[in-house]
Amino acid sequence: MASLSILGSEMTSYSTPDAALAAVTPQAGSKACPTCSRTYPPHFNVCPQDGAALSLHDELVGTTLRDTFRLVRVLGEGGMGRVYEAQHTRIASKRFAIKMLHPEYARQPDVLARFIREAEATATIKSLHVLEVYDVDRTPDGRAYIVGELLQGRELAEHLERSGKMALGPAVRIVRQICKALHAAHAKGIVHRDMKPENVFLTGDLEKPTAKILDFGISKVDSGTGPALTKTGMIMGTPSYMSPEQAKGQKIDHRTDIYAVGAILYAVLTGRRPFDGDEPTSILMRVLSEDPPRPRTLEPSIPDNVEMIIQRAMAKEPQDRFQDIRELDEALTPFDPEASSAGTSVTGSSASAGVSLKRRENALISDRMLLAGTAAIGACGAAGMLIAAVASILRLSRGASVRGNITGGESAFLILVVGGLVLAIGGFFARRAYRIVWQDDAKVSELLARLFPIVAGGLGVYGASTILIHLFETVLLRQAIGVAWAPWDVLQLVFGVGWAVGTFRVNAPPK
């Protein structure tokens, strides 16, 4: 039996049937039957008299709000309030979900303001994929409540707990629906800020469900008027799906939702959160300093292009992500089987997105090959230049002429020790780059853009100076043997390293 929906996240549902025992006097946490009104202990789930599913015993159950909404039972409870199923008093077939704030929070202006914000923000957004809100009001004793539609189905988080992960087609279909809902929200200047599987509810046929976004309680509205409910430096959201700028408490925009949607797609395809752990602080530190494992290392069936979409959506810097949620939606269109079956096959923008992704995939493969080659050439070139310079210094230390040579033992020492040291250092950085950079397409491109000019410039200057030395000694001075003059190798190393350091400083990212 599918559970009934709730208005918002972090609610505990009590609708699952279980074996029933005898009725008891109401106690803390006891449950009540919505049919016969008998009460039972907390561990009961089904009424033994009529088989009805039990809900939490609550003094408001059976009461009527505004002569319109009769509270039938408790659907769930969270830290901030309870959610009730309500029946319309004049149209018995109409049912609603009523989210009611706990009385103690009604006296806290900031909590109450966020509660009202949730109702206003949700009611403003017109989308099939956003939970519909009908009204917001207060009970006679001052408890604020929201009246919304009652959905049948289950949270995406619960669906993942049962299935582990989802196939590509259904996952993309759900995420594209999330994109459409967020596009409607962003068009109103509303940023959700807490997108996660717990805030996505699947309704209808769970084989081909309709996704609904819940809980705009900590949404950010760019209205330009009214008091700010959050300030820069305040961290709100769920760590595992929180963008780096949100984790830092910085000012955010709609791109923080794009990051979260990428993290949701990561979770539904791999069966794992991008960042997970027991301590929120440690999760936040990982969000800021680490990249999640590549999706394909956890689920090899994920296409390369989908992995690139996830990585781009979850880029650490907002400017490296999709700049509009519609871009993410269009990028996923070629992987949505329903798009083709509905007659919107991969043509037009979808086809363009597919071609663009293929070009990007080929470019990233080339980037990785070029990065590996550049690093290898740079390491070998650095080793060769340093060995030649040290050999020249040894010759100069003995006052050697241009005909002087180093000994065989010195030659072996230079090759094994100096060359080996350079290559060992290069290997250390290569291994570190493989762990930190190689798994992330954006970082591969960024490192290549910085490393290639350094290596090409340093080796280019060294090679150009070699040509100039040969021209100077053999053509101008007509002393070809002078090319072997010891100080030349030292000067060439200085020129090459100097150019490489200058290039590195010029290309260094701004602080």
Automatic annotation (TrEMBL):
Domain of life of the native organism: Bacteria
Keyword check for Ligase: no
Domain called Protein kinase: residue spans: 69-336
Matching InterPro entries: Kinase-like_dom_sf, Prot_kinase_dom, Protein_kinase_ATP_BS, Ser/Thr_kinase_AS
EC number: 2.7.11.1
A molecular-function term among this protein's GO annotations: protein serine/threonine kinase activity
Transmembrane residue ranges: 369-391, 411-430, 451-472, 484-504
Residues that bind ATP: K99
UniProt keyword list: ATP-binding, Kinase, Membrane, Nucleotide-binding, Serine/threonine-protein kinase, Transferase, Transmembrane, Transmembrane helix
Top-level enzyme category: transferase
Protein name per its UniProtKB record: non-specific serine/threonine protein kinase
Annotated source species: Polyangium jinanense
